[in-house]
Amino acid sequence: MNEVEAQAMLGDARRQLRSGSPLLARECFQQILQHLPDCLEAQEGWATAAFLGGDPQAARIAFERLTTLHPQEARHWANLGAVLNKVQDFPAAIKSLQKAIQKDKRTAQAYFNLGYAYRKLQQAPLAISAFREAVRLDPKMGAAYLQLGQLYADQENHSFAVKNFKKSLEIQPDCKKTLAGLQQSESALEKLKTLASPFGRLVSGDTQFPLVTPQIERPLSDSERVNDRQKLQGFAEELEQLSVECQHFLRTRLEPRLLALQRITAAGADSQQAFFRAADEFHQTLGDWRQLRKRFRRKCLELRAHEELIATPIVQLSKIDLSRDADH
Prior knowledge:
13 helices; elongated; disordered C terminus
């Protein structure tokens, strides 16, 4: 087989892959490799066809060979990571994908596959960071937005889940998983809204902050109702401001520190000094986050204290320790 014939057969094999016939493509690539065993395109094509044709173990061996022959090529490590995910060897997949990112930090698909592996190992924060990096590099990656929506839904952060499901639908309008996830998260948000009375008081009990018993209720006077609304409005504004501050902190400070630490870890032990510096910065940022969360928690406790005061005006209330559970 001469070069012209090999190129013609490569074209046929690529068309077979595009048309959804990986088994026929694999045969074409195999014929080329019998005559030109060092043809890189045929090697990659054969491995890809094996993977798409339902033979991940053969694909694994082929991509492992490619990473040995061409260790500097990020795409071989990324593809090997995808295959390792397929065979559910997630720790090995993470190592392979970290090598891909180390060699090319712009490989969005490597971040996507890394997020998938982390999610399967139930490491949600790392999975979210990886998927967010994937969509930063490739804003049209609808599958990554779907994964983010599902992760946020698992954490009952339904507002973020809805946001990412909608992003995914903009790219993949007919995705049934995305439509189902969006419907469930929107339904969960609606249920949360029904838990509040017209004055913003929570109806459901909270075992972490039990109401004082016995609870004796009476209708509010006009002045008490006005005062109640003013206080609730103040709490709402303060909590909204703290919520925005928390989101900004997570997006601009904590997440970049986590990504920096993740990248240095993926780069290997080339610089212990850089690793310890990044770890120290992450630890300090985590301490600042705990203080911010404590402020938010304290404000919630103040709201709860107001709820008890309005709901049980006749009963002598126990003094509420506002420092209780503030760090948890």
